[in-house]
Structures are given as C-alpha cells and as structure tokens.
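protien #1 (seq + structre)
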Amino acid sequence: MSSLSFLTIIRINVDFDAKGSVKFFTLTGGLIGVGLYGLSYTPAPFRGFLMVFYLALISGGLHLDGLADASDAFFSHRSRDEMLRIMKDSRIGTFGVLALFFVLLGKYLGFNAIRNPLFLIFIPIYGRFVAVYLMKKLPYARESGTAKSFFKKFDIWDFLGGFIFVALSFFLFDPALMGMLNASFFLWGFFLFSYFKRRIGGITGDMIGFAIEITELFMLLLGVFYGL
C-alpha cells in the first residue's frame, strides 16, 4: 500500500513504510500497466497520447521531474558536486526540456506501434524493477533527501516480484523472444548502474525517476523492434 501511495497519485490511509514498500515496486508497476492495457483498445493516434498522458498523470509527474533534473545535470558535464546541485535546482534547463520532449515523443510513437497490448503491462514493471536494482547496487548520493528513507540493506525478497514477472513473460510470449528481450533489459540495467557509479558514485531520487522513464522507453521500443 505504501508503494502505491508513493509511486502513484492514489493515496491509501495506512502508516507509510518507505523501506517495506520497495519489495512492492514491481507489483505497483504491474497495476499501472493494467491501465495501459485498457487504453490499448482506444483508436490510434489517440491511443499513444492517452497512454503518455496516463503515465504522467498516474505518477503525478514524479518520474518526469526526475528525468528533466537528471538530464540537466548529466549533460552539463560538470563535476559531481555541481551535478548534484543542478539536480536540486527546481528550475528546468535546455537539456531537461529536450529529454522530456524526446522521451514523451518516443513513448507516443512506441505505444501506437506496439502490436501485442499484453506487453504494455510489463513496461512499467521493467521501469520499477530497474529502480529497485539501482537502489540496491548504489548508495544514496546525498546526506539527506526524500528518497533516502527508501534505502536499506536489501534481500532477495525485494527482487522477488520483478523476477516473478520476468518469469511470467516467458509463458505469455515467445520464450526465445523474451530471452533476448530480458537479457537486453538486464544488460541495460547494468549499463545504468555503471554510468551512475562513474558519474555520481551513488544515486538520488531524480536519478531513479530518470532511470524509470528511460527504461520504460527502452523496453517499449525494444518490444516494437522485436515485433511485440
């Protein structure tokens, strides 16, 4: 319930448990994906617009804000401390605007091109799964911040939901195809980990939002490429 309250605009009156919510990130992604699946039956090109709008709305723009702030920081080519300062700045710069434009445009085109609507359920799952992976592999980069309360010593239960959904994909789609797609996903996650570690040496809430957004785009376009 805490995961749903944090990752979406849906608020449930329970005691908020940041650390305990992490293991339900991928399940929350699946619930978000069900909404995408429902919208897949609307006619194109409205389908793509409605899906992009839905993802922005259901998350309260949280991940898009992270995408913009992190893009401004990464493409500034500044020092680590300067990049952290830029991410803290509420103002959006040129690179943030460009990142929002290209990611939203890419999603719009991808949503209109996808053939198997069932795959849409997995798009938000992959995004949240990579967030959990990065939160396990990287330390929090600030002394304090909103996302710091989610960090803890992780165990296998934090990943169980993600692995279940990955395993389920082999039964719902062509196993050979999903083998290549999921292998690409895990390589992508490692690439993000390596990039964040090299540039920042840790991770922030903005970087988590950045990772979720571009992973959703990456997996969506990969699904289109593989004919899903």
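ok now protien #2
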Amino acid sequence: MLIAFEGGEGVGKSTQVARLAERLVARGHAVETTREPGGTPGAEAIRTLFATGEADRWLPETDALLICAARADHVARRIRPALEAGRIVLCDRFVHSTLAYQGFGKGLDVAMLKAIHDFATGGLWPDLVLWLDLPVEEGLRRAGFRIGAADRFERHDRAFHERVRAGFAALAAADPRIRRVDAAPDAARVAAAVAAEVDSALARG
C-alpha cells in the first residue's frame, strides 16, 4: 500500500509520517518512509534545485517538470521495489501536491499534470491520501517557526497558499482516496485520526 501525506505548509506531515511508521512497525508491518521531491540520491539533487532560491526562480512549467523528473527516479528506484517487497510506503508528499501547488496554485492545467505524472511513474497513484488541513495563516505561522525562510514555497504570498488549500479541497471532493484530517489539534490527536483512517484502509484491503 502506498500512503501519501499531503497538505500546505506547516501542517505537520513529517511528524505524522514518523508517528504512523512507528505504529505500523509495532503492529508487525514492514514500512518504508520517504519524501518528495527526494527519496533517492538523484531525486534529492533535484530537490535542492527545486526548493532553494527565490519564489520565482523557476517557471511553473519548470517546477512541474523538475518534480516529475525527481518522481520518476524515486518511483523506479525506491517506491516500486518497496511495494513489490510487500512494504507499506509512507510518502511525505506525492502527486496531489503537484496538482495543488503547480495546478491550482500556479495555474497549470491539472489534466496535463496528471498526464506527466502518469508518464513519470507508469501510472502509479497512492492507495490512500491523508490531507492534513490547516487554515493558511496558522500553517505559515508554524512553518515559519520551524524553517524560517529557507524553503522557497514559504516565500509565496498568502493568496498562493489559499489557492493551494482550495485545490486540495477540490481534489478531495472528487476522489474518495483523499481523506481530510484536521491538523489543528495537538500531534497526538492528529496521529489518532491518521491511525483511524489507515486502519480503515487496511481493513478494506
């Protein structure tokens, strides 16, 4: 099973990936944790290009192509082998971040982005998407406390982040694989909500 954690800035994805991995391992599951862009040496090199510099360093089209180039390597060299070995893969961001950020946030055609993703991954989509949702102002406050101005996506204006959040909401309304999780409570309560969604998905097979 491939489980993607999605959401805007500061929602706590990495914390929840780690908590869920610990829980699943304690219950006897083999688990692989990874992130996007990144997850392999080649993809991490692309991540450095993608995530640093000014907000307008790259054209939206360049952003999308960099992400999908990294994803092609990540899926081929890490995600698919882990799935074939029977592991549950927990990924901090995957395709729906591309659709929300480059599609809804930056105005690229969502259908085109889906096609590029399919080309890059051989049509691999997550089995479950956990959308950790926070109001934009709170998410940016948390992100600023954690990472300052190191990440170029924190430097986009608030309107951009509002479009991204609205994009995640639109995607969730159209796809039952996407489950919204309120990220406002403390980390333990969010982890309990995440666990409930995952337990339900595992029970469904």
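The radius of gyration is 16 Å.
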